[in-house]
Amino acid sequence: MIQHRRITIREWGPLMRARYRVPVRGVVATLLALGLVCGVGTASATAKENSAAASSSGKNQTDPQAEATGTPQFTVKGKILRRYTKLGAENSALGEPIGNQYATKDGYAQKFQFGRIKLSSVTGKTTFSIAAKYQVPRKYRQIHYEGLPALEGCGFNLTPGMNGLKVQMVADKFKVTQRLQSMSPLLRSKVRTFQRKHDLKATGVVNKKTWLAMGFTAKDWKEIDCYQHPVVVTPRMSRKQIIETFIATAAEYQGKRYIWGGANLPEQGGDCSGIILQALYSVGIDPKPNTTVNHALPAWRSSRNLAALSRLKHVNLKNLKRGDVVFYAIGGGKINHCAIYLGNGKILEEAPGVGGHITSLHHYRGLQKTAVRPIP
Hints:
Blueprint: H1 9-20, H2 24-34, H3 47-55, H4 64-69, H5 78-87, E1 102-104, E2 107-112, E3 115-120, E4 126-130, H6 165-173, H7 185-197, H8 208-213, H9 218-223, H10 239-251, H11 272-282, H12 302-307, E5 313-315, E6 325-328, E7 337-343, E8 346-351, E9 355-360, E10 368-373
Antiparallel strand pairs: 1-2, 2-3, 3-4, 5-10, 6-7, 6-10, 7-8, 8-9
Helix pairs in contact: 1-2, 2-5, 10-11
């Protein structure tokens, strides 16, 4: 007789990735939700099991393989399972479960390698906490190891004054060159001429229909100028490692094209504050209301807005440390530029005409206005 057993995530994941190229996070989340695997974070088979798990702390549940190896296999069920799966299961910042659900004074909870998920009996809602090696002091913007909310407002029309990579692509198509590229009167006139030739309403505004008629893709319409670098830091990292990650993300833009209002993938270029937005995203710091979508708006000045952003630690320009962000007022007046301080009198910046590069802190001598330390 053929014997069957439920395989573990560690067995199924590599098989699915090798044969179907399914990302591990997708494999885990899908299989856990469907209850097709056992082991770390198994799904409950019935509502009765969910109820039983919520009413008692339960014992460690193991499969035959786990019993043979002596490795405990803990069960994640019900609403705690749904929150755990949404966070990315064992690939999330929480890591793997280290025990089963247990009763608390106001509900139930379950511990994981780097945190805990709690279920309130009063509200029926779940909350989670992460026990990280390093966290920014509470009065400043926190590091969200679990990830950041998706950006909103993607796939916008290119109206007068807007900038960003989509504007640059349109300008390149019509061979319009400006030092700081925007939807200028010249570029809009080129767009109107194109629209007339293609029986489109000649507004000079690039909407999705005009974008597609220009030969660009629907995917680019939705995704360009809406990129958000994934959070790559983990609760295991030290403050120094997180600072180095922040710098490393910005350094990916070295040698790349300067795009005014750009904050996209490194190979697509960006501007001074655009690469800092992506560096902040990469270490789980949310710079809202600054987003890569707002970054392309005509009157939005991310460098100035970042300098004035609440809950960032301001530091004296005479006491700069590696990973600080320095703000400048080039030409005098208001802040209009920013760069990351690398130490030893060097900064990493994205500048018109040269793109991403390393230069002297005093390249803009006497024009430094203020500085912040995102990871204090």
